């Protein structure tokens, strides 16, 4: 009987979500490949799937490229991309003239935004360039009603979980996705989907989102103010008043069920360490084993690995001169010491390693060497939209609001 009830409960949490094509027919969102008749289409293409332990030298050998030429290409591209760092699981494409068999081009995906092109020049040298990947973009609208957590419901949905994760990131400072989500909360968002040669690749930017949380409407709109003097793109998500939705740190590093131990400076029995201590200068978030743990802010991983002092699998991240955060008892660690992480990156998974009585995340925030309570400290908001950009922003969001609500 208990078993049946739990099945009913699981069925009960399935979300009612639906996805609607929004503006599939506008010219810039066409799914047709831009042009089939390009020079490369006349070349013979040879693709190498990069396997574990493979070097650039191995890859070149596999397609019959001479060792000396391989070295020249590696040298030429060292300025823009280090070919010693090619990643397992990616594909390197080589092109050869169909008639002469002469090598004409190498293409390698550096990340989701850029590709490396290496092409032989007339003087026998090689030109290496990074080029933006041009996706075909389809704009879609999605909406849903939540009967459980956003994370759990996303798993039930026929959609890319990455789009839902992006949605949660936009509101990470304004909605508490751990304990603040209510049955019946609703969301709508307009987002881009990226295709290449007609094939779906990944979700792109979210352009607009509305979330009704416990009867309260929160809105976020993407807006770019262009590049600043240093050439850095200034963009982000803003509420209709033009205030940034981003803060320095996320409210919580994990989607949790409840907090089992709050931050205390007084005496308390610490079950996880089987001892009385003077304080528990941390937050214990109870969550299932495997629940993603996120970096609460941009930073550098100072250490990631086993801690014999009781923390089990532990990650320490330094965010800036003032703040660092620690994540303990993890079942999995996905980052390495020295790695740079971006706010919201999944760095590990909840577990019960070390001195722990059950799956939870022991989370510490350190300010100038002192452990502080992350739940009570108020962090300043990131900059809002500049006054002279407000009119343009307001006009842009009126259109997006119409699209969300039509
Ligand atoms: Zn703890």
Please explain how this structure is put together.
With 406 residues, the protein is an alpha+beta fold. The chain folds into 3 domains: 14-28 and 136-238, Nuclear Transport Factor 2, Chain: A (Roll); 35-132, Nuclear Transport Factor 2, Chain: A; 258-372, Distorted Sandwich (Glucose Permease (Domain IIA)). The chain has 7 helices and 24 strands. The chain has helices at residues 2-12, 39-42, 56-62, 67-77, 150-156, 161-170, 390-405, and strands at residues 16-21, 44-49, 91-96, 103-109, 114-120, 126-132, 136-146, 185-196, 199-213, 216-227, 233-238, 258-261, 268-270, 275-277, 283-286, 292-294, 299-307, 312-318, 323-330, 332-333, 340-341, 346-349, 360-367, 370-372. Strands 12, 15, 17, 18, 19, 21, 23 and 24 form an 8-stranded antiparallel sheet that branches. It has a 6-stranded antiparallel sheet with strand order 1-7-8-9-10-11, with helices on both faces. Strands 2-3-4-5-6 form a 5-stranded antiparallel sheet. The protein is globular and about 75 Å long. The two termini are 45 Å apart. Mean pLDDT is 83; it is low at 1-40.
């Amino acid at each position: 009987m208990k078993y049946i009830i739990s099945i009913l409960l699981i069925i009960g949490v399935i979300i009612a979500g639906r996805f609607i094509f929004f503006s599939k027919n506008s010219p810039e969102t066409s799914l047709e490949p831009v042009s089939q008749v390009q020079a490369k289409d006349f070349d013979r293409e040879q693709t190498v799937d990069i396997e574990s332990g493979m070097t650039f030298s191995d890859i070149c050998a596999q397609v019959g490229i001479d060792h000396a030429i391989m070295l020249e290409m590696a040298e030429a591209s060292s300025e823009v991309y280090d070919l010693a760092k090619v990643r397992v699981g990616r594909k390197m494409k080589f092109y050869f003239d169909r008639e002469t068999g002469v090598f004409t081009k190498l293409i390698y995906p550096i990340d989701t935004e850029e590709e490396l092109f290496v092409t032989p020049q007339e003087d026998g040298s090689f030109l290496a360039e990074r080029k933006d990947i041009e996706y075909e973009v389809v704009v879609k609208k999605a909406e849903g009603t939540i009967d459980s957590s956003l994370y759990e419901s996303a798993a039930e949905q026929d959609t890319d979980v990455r789009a839902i994760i992006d949605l949660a990131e936009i509101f990470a400072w304004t909605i508490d996705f751990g304990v603040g989500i209510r049955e019946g909360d609703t969301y709508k968002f307009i987002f881009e989907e990226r295709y290449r040669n007609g094939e779906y690749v990944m979700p792109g930017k979210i352009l607009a989102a509305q979330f009704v949380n416990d009867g309260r409407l929160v809105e976020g709109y993407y807006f770019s103010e262009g590049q600043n003097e240093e050439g850095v793109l200034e963009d982000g998500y803003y509420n209709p008043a033009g205030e940034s939705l981003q803060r320095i740190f996320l409210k919580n590093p994990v989607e949790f069920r409840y907090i089992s131990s709050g931050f205390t400076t007084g005496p308390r029995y610490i079950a996880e360490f089987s001892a009385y201590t003077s304080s528990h200068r941390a937050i214990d978030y109870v969550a299932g084993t495997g629940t993603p743990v996120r970096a609460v802010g941009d930073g550098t991983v100072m250490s990631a690995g086993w801690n014999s002092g009781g923390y089990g699998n532990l990650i320490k991240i330094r965010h800036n001169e003032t703040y660092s955060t620690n994540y303990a008892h993890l079942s999995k660690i996905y980052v390495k010491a020295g790695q740079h992480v971006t706010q919201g990156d999944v760095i590990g998974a909840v577990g019960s390693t070390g001195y722990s009585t059950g799956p939870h995340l022991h989370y510490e925030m350190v300010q100038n060497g002192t452990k502080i309570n992350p739940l009570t400290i108020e962090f300043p908001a990131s900059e809002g939209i500049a006054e002279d950009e407000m009119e343009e922003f307001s006009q842009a969001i009126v259109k997006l609001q119409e699209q969300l609500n039509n």
